[in-house]
């Protein structure tokens, strides 16, 4: 947890007010054009194209659930090739938004990526990308829900269950939570130990049946299926077992520590699991 996401203003970026309440910032609102849809300034579009696109958005709102989900899936693919950015303005337009709280994020490859596991464990360790790929893989398919409202239906994630890495490290009896660090140098997240051991929490290596790209938090990110996407920290680099929960980047700025979709952050979205 964008992005979604997580799926986020931060150092070197302009924070925007959160419509959910004063003093809050929007963790899943892009600062600039989504790099997955390269900007083409001044690209002309015809009146018929504009009206047709907006018409599809209205149809998605009015149609029954199966048709709406099909429309969202179509727009998710279309948004990645949309130089105008109009698909991002549609309600539930599908497709991910790009978010980062750092002014820049280094790229990691299989040659230089490392994931550390430490803290209240008997066997601290470090994993290369090859090490993680060699472990048993779990594939999950759930909707991704951003706290700002957009949702990408039926998104496959694949990776190592977090519980597997915790068992391998030997979590001590005094432990009660997990803190996650990211190689952007800024973002952090946390889960309780009970939450972290859920079968739908992954150290993810693949998304949408392909390796995680940099913009989606690759080569490795956290994926917490039943929570808002800001909990699924991108660019994961460290897993530290702690005694108590330490609020993450957005929790320190007013967001819920327990970010269950459908009953947190003042929202009533349909649950994702």
Automatic annotation (TrEMBL):
<dbReference type="InterPro" id="IPR000572">
    <property type="entry name" value="OxRdtase_Mopterin-bd_dom"/>
</dbReference>
<feature type="domain" description="Oxidoreductase molybdopterin-binding">
    <location>
        <begin position="104"/>
        <end position="250"/>
    </location>
</feature>
<dbReference type="InterPro" id="IPR036374">
    <property type="entry name" value="OxRdtase_Mopterin-bd_sf"/>
</dbReference>
<dbReference type="Pfam" id="PF00174">
    <property type="entry name" value="Oxidored_molyb"/>
</dbReference>
<protein>
    <recommendedName>
        <fullName>Oxidoreductase molybdopterin-binding domain-containing protein</fullName>
    </recommendedName>
</protein>
<feature type="compositionally biased region" description="Basic and acidic residues">
    <location>
        <begin position="1"/>
        <end position="42"/>
    </location>
</feature>
<feature type="region of interest" description="Disordered">
    <location>
        <begin position="1"/>
        <end position="46"/>
    </location>
</feature>
């Amino acid at each position: 947890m964008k992005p979604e996401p997580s799926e986020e203003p931060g150092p070197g970026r302009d924070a925007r007010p959160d419509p959910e309440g004063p003093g809050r910032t929007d963790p899943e609102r892009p600062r600039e054009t989504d790099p997955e849809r390269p900007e083409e300034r001044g690209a002309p579009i015809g009146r018929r194209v504009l009206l047709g696109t907006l018409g599809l958005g209205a149809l998605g709102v009015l149609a029954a659930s199966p048709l709406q989900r099909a429309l969202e899936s179509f727009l998710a693919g279309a948004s990645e090739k949309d130089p105008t950015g109009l698909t991002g303005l549609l309600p539930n337009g599908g497709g991910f938004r790009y978010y980062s709280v750092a002014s820049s994020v280094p790229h990691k490859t299989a040659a230089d990526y490392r994931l550390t596991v430490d803290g209240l464990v008997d066997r601290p360790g470090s994993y290369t990308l090859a090490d993680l790929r060699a472990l048993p893989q779990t594939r999950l398919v759930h909707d991704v829900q951003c706290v700002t409202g957009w949702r990408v239906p039926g998104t496959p994630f694949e990776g190592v269950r977090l519980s597997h890495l915790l068992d391998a490290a030997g979590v001590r009896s005094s432990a009660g939570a997990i803190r996650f660090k990211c190689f952007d140098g800024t973002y952090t997240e946390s889960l309780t130990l009970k939450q972290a051991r859920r079968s739908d929490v992954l150290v993810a290596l693949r998304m949408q049946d392909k390796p995680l790209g940099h913009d989606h938090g690759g080569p490795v990110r956290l994926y917490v299926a039943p929570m808002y996407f800001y909990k699924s920290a991108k660019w994961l680099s460290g897993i530290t077992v702690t005694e108590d929960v330490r609020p993450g980047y957005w929790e320190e700025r007013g967001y819920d520590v327990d970010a269950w979709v459908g009953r947190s952050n003042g929202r009533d979205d349909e649950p994702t699991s």
